[in-house]
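Each field is listed here:
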Amino acid sequence: MSLDPRTPVLVGGGQLNQRPETLAEAEEPVDMIARAARLAAADAGAAELVERIDSVRVVGMLSWRYRDPGLLVAQRLGAWVRHTVYTGNGGSHPQALVNDAAEDIAAGRCDVVLVGGAEAWRTRIALKACGERPDWTRQDESVPVPETRPDVPMKDPSEVVAGLDRPAYVYPLFEQAIRIASGRGVDEHRSAIAGLWARFNEVAVGNPDAWVRRRCTAEEIATVSPANRMISSPYTKLMNSNNSVEQAAAVLVCSVEAARRHGVPEDRWVFLRSGSEASDTAQIAARPRLDASPAIAASARTALDLAGLALEDLGPVDLYSCFPSAVQVAANAVGLPLDDPGRPLTVTGGLTFAGGPWNNYSTHAIATMLREVRRTQRPGLVTANSGYLTKHAVGVYAPTPGDGFRRASAQAEADAVAPTPVASDYTGPAELEAWTVAHDRDGRPATAMAALRTPGGGRTLARSEAPEIAARLVTEDLAGTKLDVSADATFDLP
């Protein structure tokens, strides 16, 4: 194969699940990344590749605070790196880091790049419950700060005052908007999304790197039980991202010249043909629609065009899957059916079953995608998502290079869709657009949170802690109901 020696190629992916018998046996996150890197090099058929890494790019971690984890990983691998990156919070960072790595390699700025991340969350929480702190590496201020990537905003005041302050509340709000747009009843829609998640579970059962490989039926996923309590309607626990995991993943990206120099067999090569990014407006109230993402549509279309591929050319696909609404919005934006038996919308099993290690899930998806592209010999698509369907990164992977790696922002196309006017500090009549109800740990409906449309065409967010309102919104379809919003961002039903 005659290729430009600077053509970027992914050569290996490594993943691990840490299940220590005692807390003392648990590895800290940087050690987990280093172990995943060695697994990636073994996958590439070139163990010595880890010692030739010249840039380490680490996805932001919540388990432990490091100043420059990339430097620590390099030291553990015996690599003399000249460049490190550490991101803020956001699930789109893994794919964006791989896009960055490919661009830097093509430009000659790097030769061998490691992208990885890890979470030892269960160990951290278990130690905290015992009143202990982990004896993990601490770096003082003498360590230079690496190149950084910012957090994705998730705390707009209009959302916080309405109680919509976390993904477990916002994504079910989107789900209600999807249900209303579909015309389905409450029970019918819950069955549909449970069926979608059961299909994700089937993939996890067959994925050796998944955290949960127990088979779950659609009925089990949909049914409230002591082990599957309602979190925020319509989502039970088995429809939420599972962050209580101990996982690491890493991928190695290098130039074709480096791959050949280090003896990586060509049957291990997977080419990143294209990458694209775009963001939807960070403010939920300003979204054009709550059941759609112009940025996913634009970035996926751009990535496929850059790769010289049509949708029907794709084989394996992994859509970011923190909650069912994220998958449905992305599938609709990309143009993929939800129930194609020949092409699941995940290669891992998703964040509920394969595992949701906070910001690092998509590194696992990319590592698994390498395996699937090699197996199927067909191009694959990965979408990664930060915030509340806010920031998106897309990559197209293929067994052949096409015209080489190409990257472009899709932001201008996403911005062409006009936002909804935000009715800040609104008081007066409004119409119920979408809602969710957070439940307490005993399973009782507790707080209702809603998106409301104002007479002038704007949107405002509000909440209600009245038990009777919360109970009604769990079981009744009240879309379009006229109601009143008070000055304290609460609402009442007639």
In short: The chain has a mean pLDDT of 97. Residues 186-205 form the longest helix (20 residues).
